Structure formats: C-alpha cells, structure tokens
C-alpha cells in the first residue's frame, strides 16, 4: 500500500533524500517508497510541469521538486541547496537520472555521443555525490544508491555507450563506498528490463515474448527496483556497502552453458 493510499501520513523518519530523475518510472517509485517510510524527498527532472505533477501526487507536504538537467552543475548545486533549505539535511542520495540516446554497433559509436552519455549517467552521479557529501553526509553520515543496469555488468549489444557508462557507475559505487566509509554506505542496483517509458522500445508490442526469457516470467516494474533501493537506504542493510545488487527477474540464470 502506498503512503498516499494510506491516508494522512503519520510516519516521520526525520531523514531527507534527493532522487534524481524522479517525475516518473523508477525514480518516482523510489521517491514513493521513501515518502511511505516517512522521509522528506527532493525529486528532479528536466520538465517543470511533470515534475510539479509528481510532487503533488507524492505530497507537497513532504516533497519538493527542482527542475534541471542532471549534468548541469548549476542545477546540481541548486538541487542540493534547495534540499538543505527545505529539510535542513540530505541523508540519502539516489542517482537515478540516466540516458541512452544511441542504438547501434559500437564500431560506429560517435565519441561525442559517448561523452554526452558519460556526462549524464556517470559524471552527474559523481557530482551529486560530491555535493551531498560536502553539504551533509561527511559530517552526519547517510547512504547513496546508484541506479546502474545489467548492461553495465555484461555485454550489451547495440547499446555500448550506455553499457560502458553503467559499468563506470558500478566502479564509481566502489570508489565512493571506499572513500566515504564508515559514515556513508554506497551501493548500486542493476536492473534488467523494467516497464517504463525509457525501456518501452524493448518490449512494446512483444511483451509476452520478452517476458518469456525471464525465469520469473515477467518484466520488471518500477516497484521491483524501488524495493531494492529502499532496502539499501535503510538500516536493514547497515553492513552492506560497495555492492551492486542485480534486480533482473532471474535473467542472468540463462547465462550458463548446458
Ligand atoms: N527501465 C529499464 O529497463 C531500466 C533498466 C536498467 C536501468 N535503468 C535506469 O533507470 C534509470 C531510470 O530509468 P526509467 O526507466 O525510470 O526512465 P523513465 O521512466 O524514462 O524516467 C526517467 C526520469 O528521469 C528524468 N530524466 C531523464 N533524463 C534526465 C536528465 N538528463 N536530467 C534529469 N532528469 C532526467 C525524466 O524526466 P524528464 O524527461 O522530464 O527529464 C524522468 O523523470 C536510468 O538511469 C536508467 O538507465 C532503467
């Protein structure tokens, strides 16, 4: 049951989070899970209007929105500053905003496009982590979750730039986990195909066929990833850091021989 269905919110964790790219899809589901446990949340996204609608759905008493592009340093600074102003703290960060603008053989990959993918998927995550560390986490502790992808932990034909960037996020997770310990735990979640606008082209018109490849018999939904992220941002995972949790409906089980 979501917090909204639950009626007036009585739970208050006293904690605050930033979730990037959270006006819909996985980011929205993560924000919803955090609000349900009583966190204050700042969500980001490029489109002011849809971000505003998401804030209203999640509850403007607990949630603020800061519009902008994840890779823009002015937006990054504004998101962290607004969170500190509104909530006085930023315990948790979910680096979720990501892009995958190219599909095709890596032999033809335009380096300019690859640079752009790295800027949005990796360098923005690094920048948000640096800012939240300096604004709050270094002194008070907290946790970070990076939304990677199975494309970052296996070969990902035709989405090479995306796969390389998600692999870099996995390593960024290790670097941050090492440097920010013991106060801040840093983990990643690596989903397979989750039914969102982002992945629509991978299953639209052939969902049953796509789902048949998954031992769990279905594609992912945003709540599958949100559950993992929420766990990694909770005290239930207090001794877990530097890990990448694959959330894939068992599709990796198909990788063996025989
Ligand atoms: N869906 C999957 O199958 C899947 C699998 C593995 C990993 N992932 C990862 O999960 C993350 C979220 O994907 P999703 O499937 O939830 O996508 P989605 O449903 O398309 O939602 C993306 C969200 O991020 C925002 N956004 C997009 N680009 C942004 C940018 N440059 N700066 C700031 N906000 C941005 C979007 O709002 P605006 O358009 O208004 O900016 C939207 O709120 C991505 O990092 C993706 O790589 C997804």
TrEMBL record:
PROSITE patterns: ADH_SHORT (PS00061). Signal peptide: none annotated. InterPro entries: NAD(P)-bd_dom_sf, Sc_DH/Rdtase_CS, SDR_fam. It holds the Pfam family adh_short_C2. Gene3D superfamilies: NAD(P)-binding Rossmann-like Domain (3.40.50.720). Belongs to the short-chain dehydrogenases/reductases (SDR) family. PANTHER family: DEHYDROGENASE/REDUCTASE (SDR FAMILY) MEMBER 4, DEHYDROGENASE_REDUCTASE 4. This is SDR family oxidoreductase. It comes from Streptomyces zingiberis. The lineage of its organism: Bacteria, Bacillati, Actinomycetota, Actinomycetes, Kitasatosporales.
């Amino acid at each position: 049951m979501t917090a909204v269905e639950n009626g007036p919110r009585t739970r208050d964790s006293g904690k605050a989070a930033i979730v990037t790219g959270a006006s819909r899809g996985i980011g929205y589901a993560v924000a919803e899970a955090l609000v349900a446990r009583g966190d204050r949340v700042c969500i980001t996204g490029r489109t002011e209007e849809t971000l505003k609608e998401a804030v209203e759905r999640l509850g403007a008493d607990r949630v603020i929105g800061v519009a902008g592009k994840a890779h823009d340093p002015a937006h990054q600074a504004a998101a962290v500053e607004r969170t500190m102003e509104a909530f006085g703290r930023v315990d948790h960060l979910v680096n979720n905003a990501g892009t995958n603008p190219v599909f095709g053989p890596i032999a033809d990959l335009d380096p300019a496009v690859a640079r752009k993918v790295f800027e949005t998927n990796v360098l923005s995550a690094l920048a948000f982590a640096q800012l939240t560390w300096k604004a709050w986490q270094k002194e008070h502790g907290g946790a970070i979750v990076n939304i990677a992808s199975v494309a970052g932990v296996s070969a990902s034909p035709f989405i090479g730039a995306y796969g390389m960037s998600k692999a870099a996020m996995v390593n960024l997770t290790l670097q941050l986990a090492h440097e920010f310990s013991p106060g801040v735990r840093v983990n990643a979640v690596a989903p397979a195909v989750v039914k969102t606008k982002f992945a629509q082209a991978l299953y639209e018109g052939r969902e049953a066929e796509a789902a048949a490849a998954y031992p769990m018999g279905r594609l992912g939904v945003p709540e599958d990833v949100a559950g993992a992220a929420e766990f990694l941002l909770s005290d239930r995972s207090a001794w877990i850091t530097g890990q990448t949790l694959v959330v894939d409906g068992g599709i990796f089980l198909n990788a063996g021989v025989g």
